[in-house]
Each structure stands twice: as structure tokens, then as C-alpha cells.
Amino acid sequence: MRSFLVPMTDPNGQDAVLDLAFAMARKFRGHLSGLFIRPDPRAAIPFMGEGLTADAIQDLVDASDREGKARAARAFAVFEEKRQSENLPLGDGLEGLDDPTISWEETTGFIADRVGRAARLADLTIVPQPVEPNHQDSADLLNEVLFRSGRPLLLAPPERQHKNPGNSILVAWNGRAECARTVAASLPFLHQAERIILLTVDDEHPDRPSLEGLRIYLARHGLTAETRQVQSEQRSVGETIRATVDKEQADLLIMGAFSHSRWREMIVGGVTRDAIHHARIPVFMSH
After folding, report:
1. Under CATH, what is the fold of the domain 3-156?
2. Which of 18, 149, 185, 227 is at 20 to 30 A from 138, Cα to Cα?
3. Looking at the predicted structure, is the pLDDT value of residue 119 above 60?
4. What is the pLDDT at residue 268?
5. Which part of the chain is CATH 3.40.50.620?
């Protein structure tokens, strides 16, 4: 992994997100880009009502533009303070592959249009965990990266003790395509891990690749992994995964996202939703 992206539009959980993002740049000696997306004030003009004069509309647009620039300045100040505290240089990541570099970019538009597209050119995007129901920006960031980038993301919980995850990794395996895609994308992490635990919950599906098959696949990459098959009993699958994370003292969870319909999982619950809202360690996932 060489290219990392951290969107800075959402102020919630910024400290934990930056801790994790800068740790990834150091871990893989890669390039980290900070991105701030300013709303386009002109996009609100159609919704301002017919009773406003042109001058009034322009005043509102100007005020919105000033607020967007002020928010961008505050986000950059936080990002730059972190960069200086980490003593990492500004750069574009093109002149050497031995040391991490940092850059900052501002753009204007809708988060839904910009962040997913920007993430397509990042090996990994670090986003905050949307732990509060009113943190809509966090949820929007996660959804856009997950469903529109085609790349994996790393979910940062609000606690700041997870500054360098990946020593002890738990892989939640169900044999589905999105899970296989996530495991393949996480190979750089797995190669640096001291311990890898492969977990399946309840009985394996007879028509999908097995846990033992995954162990053999990783062995062909030179990786040694332990396997666990755990019964959920009276718990949900998500709760069982989190309990196993705690028992095994894993510091990174790797899992595919939304094995079932996205809307079904959001409405009735599911493993992905459980991890998104309740995981207490960083989660590496893709769809």
C-alpha cells in the first residue's frame, strides 16, 4: 500500500481518524492526502425561494462561501498541527519510496460526488466510525467510500488507543465474494501481522469456499493463520464476532461489507451494521 486518503469534511472523531491515518502512512511508508470538500454555495440557489432578490441571494451565497472557507481553514489547521507533531514532510510521494509524505487538497462540490471518486485513487481511505445517530456526515463518508470507490476503507473508532493496528488480526470469513475481495485487499496488512485468526460463525455454507480453504490460500502467500469456528448460540453473528475479537485480543478486524442487501441490513440489522456502529477496534472492509 502506498496511497492513503483521509477526508476532513466531518469534524467528528478527527483526532482518532488522524492518529490512524498518519499511522498507516508510517506503517507502509506511503503518501497520505488530506482532503476537504467545501459545499458549493451556488448549489443552494434553486432552493432559496422566489421571494428573494438577486442581491439577497448573492449575499447568502457569499456568506455560505465564507463559512465553507472558514471550515476548510479550521480543518487544515488541525491536519497541519498533526503533521508537524508527527514530523512528516510535505510532498507528493513521487520522489522516493522510503519515507512517508503528506499533502493537502481542497475541492468544492457535494460529498456524495467527490469523496467516492477521490477514494478510487487511494489504496485505503480512513473514515470515522459513525457512532452517534446524528453524525450524518460520518455516515455519508462511509457510504460513499464503501459503495462508490471500489476500494477498501479503514473505520476509525473514536477511542484513540488504536494508533497502530495490525499486529493481531481477526478475519471474519463467510465465503462470499465481497469477503474474498476484502481479504485480497488486506494482504499488505496480513503480511505485517504477528498473528492472524480466521473466524467463521456457525456452520459453513457447503457451496462456498471454506475456512480451511482460506487458510491454505493464505499459506500460499507465505502466511500462517489460526482458525476458529464459533457458534453464535443466543447471540447475533455481529455480537459473536465482537466477542471473539475481545477473546483473541485482536487489534484489527477484517471483513466484507453487506453480504446481504444494503437496505435489508440497514433496516433489519446485520453483521456490517453491527461492526459499523459497535466495533471497538479499527475495521478494514470493502464491498
Report:
1. Rossmann fold (3.40.50)
2. 185
3. yes
4. 35
5. 3-156, 168-286
Cα gap 1→21, rounded to integer Å: 13
**pLDDT tens digits, 143-166:** 889 888 999 999 999 886 666 899
CATH code of the region 168-286: 3.40.50.620
Spatial contact of 35 and 6, defined as CB atoms under 8 Å apart: yes
Q: Which amino acid is at 101?
A: T
* pLDDT at residue 56 is higher than 90: no
Q: Do the Cβ atoms of 139 and 277 come closer than 8 Å?
A: no
- Looking up cell 487511494, which residue turns up? 122
Show Cβ contacts of residue 10 under 8 Å, excluding neighbours closer than 6 positions: 128, 135, 137, 138, 141
| pLDDT digits 0-9 by tens, 208-242 | 999 999 999 999 999 999 999 999 988 999 999 99
Q: What is the 3-state secondary structure (H, E, C) of 199-247?
A: EEECCCCCCCCCHHHHHHHHHCCCCCCEEEEECCCCCCHHHHHHHHHHH
Q: Are 222 and 194 in contact (CB under 8 A)?
A: no
Residue type, 106: E
